[in-house]
Write a structure and sequence with these properties.
2 domains; globular; 11 strands; 344 residues
C-alpha cells in the first residue's frame, strides 16, 4: 500500500474551512469510525464540519466519540466549501446525500474498494489498504493533527472490523503497526471488542435461529447460503442492521469457498445480497457489480430490485457458474438442485 497522501487530498483539507463528511448506506464501523475520526481532527483544527449518514449509526458503533452528532443528509451542501466522501465506491451509495454530493463544487473521494468509480474532483482509492481508517490515519499524520484516544478508538474500530479482527487476507504489516500505534494512543482493545461484537440484542439471536434453518450447502460443500424472509423480522422483532455478520455463519463452514446471504426487503420487491469468498479464488466483487453492487474480491454485496425468487435464482446461478469454472483441486463440484424459492 502507498503510505503517502496525495497532494491534492492534503491541499483540499488544508485550504478550506468547512466540510461535509459523508459515507454509505448500511454503514459499518470502518465507515462510521473513519468519518468521526476525520471530523474530530478537523474540528480541532478550527474547521466547521458536519457528518452525514443516510442510515442511522449502527447500535454497535454508537459508543464511538461524536456518533451522537451524526446527521441525516440534506438535499444540498450549500454553505460548505467541500464534501468528503469516505469508504464509498460511488455517489449513489450515499443514499439521500447523493444529490448534494453530485452538486457540490468540490468533492473528495477517499476509499479502499476496488469497485470505486473515481468519480470525484479529488480521488484517493488505495486498494491495498485494509480499511479506509488506514487512509484517514495517514491524512491526519500529513495534516499534523493530534490523534487523541477518541480519534484512535474510531480508527481502531474501523481497522478491526474490516480485517475480521485481523484475520482476513487484507491484514498487512502496516495494519498491525497502525493497531499498535493506536493502542499506544489510548485505545482499550477489550472495551472496543466488547462494544463491537458482544452487545447483541436478543432479537438478533431470535432472527438468527430461523435463518440458520434455511442453510443449504451445495457443490460438494463449496457453496453455502442462507435466506432471510421478511416475515422473520416481524416474528423476531429484529431490524435489518441485526443481520450484520450472519453471512459469516455460512462462510465459516469447513470447505466452503463462497457464502451467500439473501435478505428479502420489507416491501417484498427486492433482496439485499451479501457475498463472501473464503479463499479469494472467486471474485465476489465481480458478481455483485453485475447487479449494481460492489465491494472487495472476498466480500461484496448488492441491493437488487425485483421478484425475490428470481433474484435468488440469478445470484446463486452466477455463483454456481463461477465455482464450476475453478481449476480442479481434487474435488469436482457436482451439479445440485437450487433451493426452493420459498425457503424461509
Amino acid at each position: 500500500m502507498r503510505e503517502k497522501v496525495p497532494r491534492a487530498v492534503a491541499r483540499l483539507l488544508r485550504e478550506h474551512e468547512s466540510f461535509v463528511i459523508c459515507g454509505h448506506v448500511r454503514p459499518d464501523a470502518d465507515c462510521v469510525g473513519s468519518e468521526l475520526a476525520l471530523a474530530r481532527a478537523l474540528v480541532r483544527m478550527g474547521r466547521r464540519v458536519e457528518v452525514w449518514l443516510p442510515d442511522r449509526v449502527p447500535a454497535n458503533c454508537r459508543f464511538l466519540p461524536g456518533s451522537g452528532a451524526v446527521r441525516p443528509p440534506r438535499p444540498s451542501a450549500d454553505g460548505f466549501d467541500a464534501v468528503v466522501v469516505l469508504d464509498t465506491p460511488r455517489p449513489e451509495r450515499t443514499g439521500g446525500a447523493a444529490a448534494a454530493v453530485r452538486g457540490a463544487a468540490r468533492t473528495a473521494n477517499i476509499d479502499h474498494h476496488p469497485s470505486n468509480e473515481r468519480w470525484a474532483g479529488v480521488n484517493w482509492v488505495e486498494q491495498g489498504a485494509a480499511a479506509t481508517a488506514e487512509l484517514v490515519f495517514l491524512i491526519l499524520q500529513e495534516l499534523g493533527a493530534r490523534i487523541d484516544a477518541g480519534i484512535a478508538t474510531c480508527l481502531y474500530a474501523g481497522l478491526t472490523t474490516d480485517t475480521g479482527r485481523f484475520s482476513y487476507g487484507n491484514t498487512t504489516p502496516f495494519t498491525h503497526r497502525l493497531a499498535a500505534e493506536l493502542l499506544d494512543r489510548g485505545v482499550d482493545p477489550e472495551a472496543v471488542s466488547d462494544r463491537l461484537y458482544a452487545q447483541n440484542r436478543p432479537e438478533k439471536l431470535r432472527l438468527l435461529a430461523p435463518v440458520l434453518g434455511t442453510l443449504r450447502v451445495e457443490l460438494s460443500g463449496a457453496l453455502a447460503w442462507v435466506r432471510i424472509g421478511r416475515e422473520m423480522f416481524a416474528r423476531s422483532g429484529a431490524v435489518p442492521e441485526d443481520t450484520e455478520g450472519f453471512v459469516n455463519c455460512a462462510r465459516d463452514i469447513a470447505g466452503v469457498k463462497v457464502a451467500v446471504l439473501l435478505e428479502e426487503q420489507a416491501d417484498g420487491r427486492g433482496m439485499r445480497v451479501s457475498l463472501r469468498s473464503r479463499d479469494g479464488r472467486i471474485d465476489v466483487n465481480r458478481i455483485a457489480a453485475a447487479y449494481g453492487g460492489g465491494g472487495h474480491r472476498a466480500a461484496a454485496g448488492a441491493l437488487i430490485r425485483g421478484a425475490p425468487g428470481k433474484i435468488e435464482r440469478m445470484v446463486l446461478g452466477d455463483v454456481r457458474k463461477a465455482l464450476r469454472k475453478l481449476p480442479g483441486d481434487g474435488r469436482h463440484p457436482r451439479r445440485a438442485k437450487a433451493g426452493r424459492d420459498d425457503v424461509a
